[in-house]
């Protein structure tokens, strides 16, 4: 993504631009903002910015002075001026500085969007020759393909971005495959990704859940299916089926249909609970066409989703019972079709709460038991009771997951990678969140600033090492992520109340 910096001395303009523009739709993200030119220049010296959007008339340093000074730092910086003054002298000076556009307030958003589109196209063209490291390619590829598979980017913008990466994915049809490791292993998935890239002509990326997604493209539906079957067969021959859970969605036309294929592949991952062995979970094998159609036609999932997320247990249970009886009264409805519908319902609910909570082994075991109970029900009453029980369990899990999913991901990452070089900037980049917003959200959710929280995690790990390992204090300091032992000493004493040496001596 290209990075945008906003400057205006009117707070409501800054807030309106930050929150009112879908920056992601243009492949952009707001990386900072300031209320005057002097503050902006100070921040720009520490940031890598692609587009500067600035007011002209501001205290301390006006917008034109800011543009001149910023160009000394970043000669290729693209600039857009916002101004409440339609004065020719300002326009002339702006044009002399090579601005992209001079927009008058109040802002015409259509004109702003057109300017952003043109500006990003210019940047794309100027950087098409740039080379990326493997890590940078993976980060860009993950972002671009995830947005394409979830229909969050236009086909035109998608084409521009994959061209920038030197990729040419083509095909009238797409079939999404998902590979999930159990337990999750980033290093192993990274190796598998490299193997797929080397041996398979199909795009591959990591999604927001951390799974590996392969997009099988072809001119005909059968070509996608054949490519997927061959690739998965080769993968299982090399690695076996015990390590991976592989699911396939449905073949869908590109140009929007790839989203459905991806959604179905994610659903199929949950159907492993109904399988006797790992194998391959194919979505189309688990839901008959008639019953799938019944779910689409008779049940409004958005109503269910709303009741689930607001945790209205009694209302949701009543709605499910009402819909069950309504479906049962319909023509050609039988127990098997109701079973299929119930399984689809539980899968959707389970996928919904996974956005907020990472499943643990106990939770997975409970879900597997609920799936078996639904699939083995012999009577309508037993089936309905099993579905209601599943809903109660799922809402209970949702109540445990009220913390922001991004914060939960960050906390889990800190626990696992506390020794790495961590900052709000690096984590914001990893989880696709602006660092400033992530910092505010983290403090609101945890009650502590990011740095304070990270220091506590590191100090707790250090205490374990001081108790149970022969390492010296300066070695422990390095092991838990502190480059400067003096800073480690200071934080340790602040949090524990004694120095690391005193703590070790007491053990």
Automatic annotation (TrEMBL):
<keyword id="KW-0805">Transcription regulation</keyword>
<dbReference type="Pfam" id="PF12833">
    <property type="entry name" value="HTH_18"/>
</dbReference>
<keyword id="KW-0963">Cytoplasm</keyword>
<keyword id="KW-0804">Transcription</keyword>
<feature type="domain" description="Response regulatory">
    <location>
        <begin position="3"/>
        <end position="120"/>
    </location>
</feature>
<keyword id="KW-0238">DNA-binding</keyword>
<dbReference type="GO" id="GO:0000160">
    <property type="term" value="P:phosphorelay signal transduction system"/>
</dbReference>
<protein>
    <submittedName>
        <fullName>Two-component system response regulator YesN</fullName>
    </submittedName>
</protein>
<dbReference type="InterPro" id="IPR041522">
    <property type="entry name" value="CdaR_GGDEF"/>
</dbReference>
<keyword id="KW-0597">Phosphoprotein</keyword>
<dbReference type="InterPro" id="IPR018060">
    <property type="entry name" value="HTH_AraC"/>
</dbReference>
<dbReference type="Pfam" id="PF00072">
    <property type="entry name" value="Response_reg"/>
</dbReference>
<keyword id="KW-0902">Two-component regulatory system</keyword>
<dbReference type="InterPro" id="IPR011006">
    <property type="entry name" value="CheY-like_superfamily"/>
</dbReference>
<dbReference type="GO" id="GO:0043565">
    <property type="term" value="F:sequence-specific DNA binding"/>
</dbReference>
<dbReference type="InterPro" id="IPR051552">
    <property type="entry name" value="HptR"/>
</dbReference>
<feature type="modified residue" description="4-aspartylphosphate">
    <location>
        <position position="55"/>
    </location>
</feature>
<dbReference type="InterPro" id="IPR001789">
    <property type="entry name" value="Sig_transdc_resp-reg_receiver"/>
</dbReference>
<feature type="domain" description="HTH araC/xylS-type">
    <location>
        <begin position="408"/>
        <end position="506"/>
    </location>
</feature>
<dbReference type="Pfam" id="PF17853">
    <property type="entry name" value="GGDEF_2"/>
</dbReference>
<dbReference type="InterPro" id="IPR018062">
    <property type="entry name" value="HTH_AraC-typ_CS"/>
</dbReference>
<dbReference type="GO" id="GO:0005737">
    <property type="term" value="C:cytoplasm"/>
</dbReference>
<dbReference type="GO" id="GO:0003700">
    <property type="term" value="F:DNA-binding transcription factor activity"/>
</dbReference>
<dbReference type="InterPro" id="IPR009057">
    <property type="entry name" value="Homeodomain-like_sf"/>
</dbReference>
<dbReference type="InterPro" id="IPR020449">
    <property type="entry name" value="Tscrpt_reg_AraC-type_HTH"/>
</dbReference>
């Amino acid at each position: 993504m290209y990075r945008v910096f906003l400057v205006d001395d009117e707070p409501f303009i800054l807030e309106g631009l930050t929150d009112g523009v879908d920056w992601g739709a243009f492949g952009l993200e707001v990386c900072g903002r300031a209320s005057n030119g002097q503050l902006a220049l100070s921040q720009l010296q520490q940031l890598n910015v692609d587009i500067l959007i600035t007011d002209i008339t501001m205290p301390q340093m006006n917008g034109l002075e800011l543009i001149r000074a910023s160009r000394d730092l970043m000669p290729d910086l693209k600039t857009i001026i916002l101004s409440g003054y339609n004065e020719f002298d300002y326009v002339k000076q702006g044009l002399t500085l090579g601005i992209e556009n001079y927009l008058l307030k109040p802002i015409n958003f259509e004109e702003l969007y057109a300017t952003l589109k043109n500006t990003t196209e210019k940047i794309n063209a100027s950087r098409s020759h740039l080379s990326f490291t493997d890590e940078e390619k993976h980060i860009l590829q993950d972002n671009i393909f995830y947005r394409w598979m979830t229909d969050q980017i236009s086909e035109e913008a998608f084409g521009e971005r994959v061209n920038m990466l030197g990729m040419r994915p083509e095909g009238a049809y797409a079939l999404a495959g998902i590979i999930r490791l159990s337990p999750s292993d980033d290093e192993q998935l990274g190796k598998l990704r490299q193997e797929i890239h080397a041996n398979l002509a199909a795009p591959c990326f990591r999604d927001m859940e951390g799974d590996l997604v392969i997009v099988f493209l072809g001119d005909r539906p059968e070509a996608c299916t054949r490519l997927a079957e061959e690739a998965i067969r080769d993968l299982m021959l090399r690695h076996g089926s015990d390590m991976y859970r592989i699911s396939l969605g449905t073949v869908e036309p590109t140009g929007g249909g790839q989203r459905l294929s991806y959604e179905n592949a994610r659903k199929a991952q949950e159907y492993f609970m109904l399988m006797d062995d790992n194998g391959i979970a194919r979505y189309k094998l688990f839901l008959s066409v008639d019953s799938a159609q019944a779910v689409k036609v008779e049940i409004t999932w958005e109503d269910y989703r709303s009741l689930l997320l607001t945790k209205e247990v009694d209302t949701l249970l009543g709605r499910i019972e009402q819909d069950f009886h309504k479906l049962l009264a319909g023509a050609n409805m039988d127990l098997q079709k109701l079973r299929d519908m119930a399984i689809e319902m539980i899968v959707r609910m389970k996928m919904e709460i996974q956005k907020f909570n990472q499943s643990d082994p106990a939770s997975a075991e409970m879900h597997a038991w609920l799936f078996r109970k639904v699939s083995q029900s012999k009577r309508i009453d037993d089936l309905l009771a099993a579905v209601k029980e599943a809903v109660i369990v799922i809402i209970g899990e949702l109540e445990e997951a009220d913390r922001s999913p991004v914060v939960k991901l960050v906390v889990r990452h800190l626990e696992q990678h506390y020794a790495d070089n961590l900052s709000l900037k690096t984590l914001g980049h990893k989880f696709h969140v602006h660092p400033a917003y992530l910092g505010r959200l983290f403090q609101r959710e945890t009650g502590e600033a990011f740095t304070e929280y990270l220091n506590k995690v590191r100090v707790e790990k250090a205490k374990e090492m001081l108790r149970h390992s022969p390492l010296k204090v300066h070695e422990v300091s390095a092991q838990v992520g502190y480059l400067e032992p003096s800073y480690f000493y200071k934080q340790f004493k602040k949090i524990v109340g004694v120095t690391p040496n005193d703590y070790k001596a007491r053990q």
